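re: ur question from yesterday

yeah so i grabbed the chain u mentioned. its 128 aa long if i counted rite. heres the sequnce exactly as i have it in my notes:
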Amino acid sequence: MNPSNAVLAARLLTESNPVWAWAIAVTAVGLLVAALMVLVQDTGKPGRRAAIWGVVIFMIPIIGPAFYLIWETVRYHREHGRPEKGMVEKYAPEEVAQRREEARREEARRDEDRRGSRRGDDADAAAD
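ran it thru and got these structure tokens back, copy pasting raw so excuse formatting
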């Protein structure tokens, strides 16, 4: 009279709403939507290649979209390299302020030198 483990497992899966089932469903839908958005926005893919990726994304529920997103991320980084960090990301805030001030002073010196050389040219022309 004791039901087998398989029957008990099937009854638990069909009669209750386990949280993990909802989590898997939300993950699957989220990955599907994200992968389709990336696929549609990529205009550089030929039609056949995009169709094959579309089939992979739809037919293999979680693994297909995840694999496509990873594949596209690796391809993008291989083609475009890593973005260069700005000064704020490379240096401490004090160093950033100091470097900006030094750059401003250097630019002011260059401007002054340009103005001075123009004045000298005008004085030489007037003397001739």
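noticed a couple things. Helices lie at 5-15, 19-41, 47-59, 63-80, 87-90, 93-127. also Residues 76 and 82 are 10 Å apart (CA to CA).
anyway ttyl
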